[in-house]
Amino acid sequence: MIAVDSPATVSLWQECAAGKPLMSSTSVMEHLESWGPGSQPGLEAVDALAYCRKLTLGHYENFPVLSGLVPDSVRDGASAVYAFCRWADDLGDEVGDRDRSLELLDWWREETLRCFQGEASHPVFVALDHLMERYQFNPEPFLDLIDAFIQDQTVTRYESWEQLIDYCRRSADPVGRLVLRLVGQDDDPEVLEASDAVCTALQLTNHWQDVKRDLLERDRIYVPSEVHEIDNFDQRMRQTVILGHAPDTEFYGEWQVMMKGLVKRTWPGFERIEFLLGRLSPDVRPMVWLFAAGGSHILRRIEQINYETVLFRPRLTALTKLNLVLSARRSVKGVGA
Questions:
Q1: Where does CATH 1.10.600.10 sit in the chain?
Q2: What's the whole-model pTM score?
Q3: Tens digit of each residue's pLDDT (9 = 90 or more) over 54-85
């Protein structure tokens, strides 16, 4: 449920005060030399905020960036929070070496703690530090997210549903809580619970959507072993993914039954969105609805392809994204009235 900025309001700087170009690509890995461990960027807050905005605008998953649904009051904060998540995610998944990723994530944790001690130097943390008085961030959600990225380097298989949900509590729920902090509505336990439920559903949907990519690119399987009784699951899944078709028809049928059950267990989280929207102020409802709707449409798409995610990765088409954006304001009219 991470919010993003609107391009119509973004004034992008061509160069930072330190003479270093703003990000021209969507990966942070090219910028470790300039802004990684041991560097001293020395950016002013205005340049750090511009950096975060451009990083936010540079990622394909941020289709809500085109919507104009993000309230003015949260745009800078949303960009800074997204940039934090993007850096942590790339340090975990784009390095290509788990030991090095763990080193970099430890560094990112130290930078986070330094930020909350008023000693920010990295552009992301200079931006967050600048926004600290406005949003009154606390470190726990940021540190929880880093813990989840570290877990991704050390845990690649899950035995139980509860183990997976515990991972989601740290990999997804903190993002929703940060968004609630941005809009000043994180003091109601029922709102927090509903946000957590929606964010966990979004994370689970992402896992079911990306089973192929997670296995091939990162050797991760998020499907808990307790939810199936499929013999030689890892081997047969890998064979099917690599071949791109399903010669093992028995496994394929068992996969569809298993995925159908996982999708069924995921839907209740999305059902909490109506309660959540009813408790939020009207100006932020379209933004929050849009993020939840994107996830629920992916989950519906999994159903439409007959749960064949081991072969096909469901995606939202450009037309579907446009329709969701156009539907966002209309869909929340009357909510909470």
A1: 1-154, 155-337
A2: 0.88
A3: 888 876 554 454 457 888 888 899 999 999 99
